[in-house]
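Lab notes, practical 5.
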Amino acid sequence: MAAPHQSPVRPSKDLSGTTRRDVIRFAALGLAGLGTGCARALPATSSTPADRSLVDDLEHRTFRWFWDTGDPATGLVPDRWPSKSFCSIAAVGFALNAYAVGAERGWISRAQARERTLNTLRFFATAPQGEAAAGMTGHRGFFYHFIDMQRGHRFETVELSSIDTVLLLAGMLFAGSYYSSDDPAEAEIRRLAKEINDRVDWPWMLGKGPLVSMGWTPEEGFIESQWDRFNESTILYLLAIGSPTHPIDPAIWHRWTENFAYSWGDHWGERHLAFAPLFGHQFSHVWVDFRGIRDPWLRAHNLDLFENSRRATRAQRNYAIANPEGWATYGPDCWGLTACDGPGDFKLVIGGREREFHGYTARGPDRIDDGTLAPTAMASSIAFEPELVRSGLASMKRRFGPAIYGQYGFFDSFNPTLTEVPPGVSIGGRLVPGFGWVDTDYLGIDQGPIVGMIANYRNELIWRAMRRSPPIVAGLKRAGFTGGWLDRVP
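Output from the prediction step:
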């Protein structure tokens, strides 16, 4: 079991006192990094065959995390491991990608991937839906953020989550496009993926409007916070607008992009739409190939979202090079701030300076930075900046070795500044002598983008399949996207 502050309920409180299950609310609070910096990005370094070999090994180990920890009968995947945990529905969506990656790479057979995928879709297709506070997996086509690993029912009082439902749906829609043969099992996968997506009642999730709510609970109704800034909700709005049965008005997309002005500007040497934690620049890109396609807002700014994520990646590296807070090991090959585990919530004087540390929270430049780095932030950017990421990952593994790299790849996070803790201070993870703090868990929503984005970088596996997904294509076109591959789709 995890330490008290690092409980499986992802887990501790952030600076504002919200629990981990409220981390989805960060986006609505306008927490994108708005600072500018003068640091210039260094030239990309050339990676070596050993660097590329590490990417292969990381992809395999990360795939194995999903294959080994998931329930073969139901497809439910834990939020984290090895700490005892409930299921994260978003992690299930990422797992559905991983099974196909495993089949393509020869780590499992296509039949094995197909069976696990079909079991997953059958479970969610028949899981109980209703407005009761207990005993349900979802309501109105949406699913609860966390569900128990045994029955798949709502965990405690978590919210019916719009974004986590979308990450699950995206994995299902990918499966519906990837498994395209006449095999009866593959035909059933396609049918179930469509049925599950079609029953999601998107107009209902507008709640109090004017934008999509972050969630709903039987006890309190709709969450006040809405998806009203640039963040990982790009794919949420695409699926909501592209729904074949319960779409929202495409005008809502444009209402959402009107708020991009809050995030647009020069951030650490790169002009882009900023969102401080890197996951906001990665999650939607796991499934959608944004290269060369633009909506009206992007056309006006001579930008596409792929290029925007490339700039966000470089901005984070520039921030680490500048290292304004003076954290240990930050630099051109050691960077990456995102939502991840941390050592805990406490203050400590280190080198004559008081430092404040946090447990699980969304980290980013000009937001929260306590010296905790997450390898997923770097690894999941590989499609945007392959040379920088390959050399950076290899450098971190070479420098820190088994302290941060284990059975299933990189542990979720590490903090070399925190090398000792005084008596009475409780931390999660462990202190590695001569190095610093390292998490002991792997998190599904951090593992998922690693394996997915490596697959896209390698051969566009997920992107190619999703270009054939009717809800994605419809959402993009209704939102006003044109150009590139999208113009070639009937």
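Observations recorded by the TA: Residues 1-45 have pLDDT under 50 and may be disordered. Residues 4-488 form a domain with the Glycosyltransferase fold (CATH 1.50.10.140).
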